[in-house]
Amino acid sequence: MEENTAATLSSALKKQKYHLVGSHSAVKRCKWLYESIINNRTCYKQKFYGIKSHRCIQMTPSLYYCTQQCLFCWRAQSGDLQVTWDETRIPKVDSPEAIVEGCLKAQEKILTGYKGNEKANWRKFQEALTPKQVAISLTGEPTLYEPLGELIRTFKQKGLTTFLVSNGTLPSKLSTLSKEPTQLYISVCAPNEQLYKRVCRPEFPSAWAKLNETLSLLQSFRCPTVIRTTLVKELNMNHVDEYAKLVEMANPTYIEAKAYMHIGFSNLRLGFERMPMHSEVKDFAKKLSEKTGYMIIHEAPESRVVLLSKLKKAIQVGSD
After folding, report:
1. pLDDT score at 147
2. How many domains does the chain have?
3. Given 39, 76, 100, 135, which residue has the most CB atoms within 10 angstroms?
């Protein structure tokens, strides 16, 4: 990446409160960290899976890099800021140890702002200083980071559980991870190849086939797996039968149906009116439930997300 491009990107991301780590990673405060410490409200990951919102780090090892340019994505994409770069290759790879240490320091810096806040829950603030969970999901495609398995292992050695979110376009990287995450998410945001190319805008022509390959591999993972659908009104909320076929192929532990949120750089591509209401997300989930046999077992209206599973209750992977 050229120096001027990197400077433009880093300046814009810092204004959006990203804490840059090394040459290609970042941490950003999740709004639910604030809500948990200040207002005692927790995110859907805590409600569903037992993850403590105030002890969770939201990060990425591939800040500027991805194999897709999804319309709904909040990340800065090549061309968004009148600068372009190769999004599919991380040119300089930082070590897992450096990234983990940088993320822990960034989270500590984020938390310093709560020390003098009279509204802060002091117990939660103290607990937050020792994170227990990391969501490798902030932006970009993490499987572009070659030593991803070692990054997961290093986080685990520090006592953190890991949720890994991938778009599934690099199945060979996922199938050869040296260490599995605590939970693996695969984003499935279109029911067929035609809509996939329109919504997810892949960077290479075989991406749909690669995503299907990943879905066929999903049952080989020992960790709980999730198909995540980001739903955009009047774009990808139809063709439930085709979504059901993809679910049948993958047989994931869970399905998360979640609304698109009009935030970040997605504002350049989609209007506010494209966000579905929770009732519309739930209606989609009910139709998918009827087609797949997955039951609706939980929901979080404040995040516009519905959880489906063949389990009666989600596995609680969080730790105190």
Report:
1. 98
2. 1
3. 100
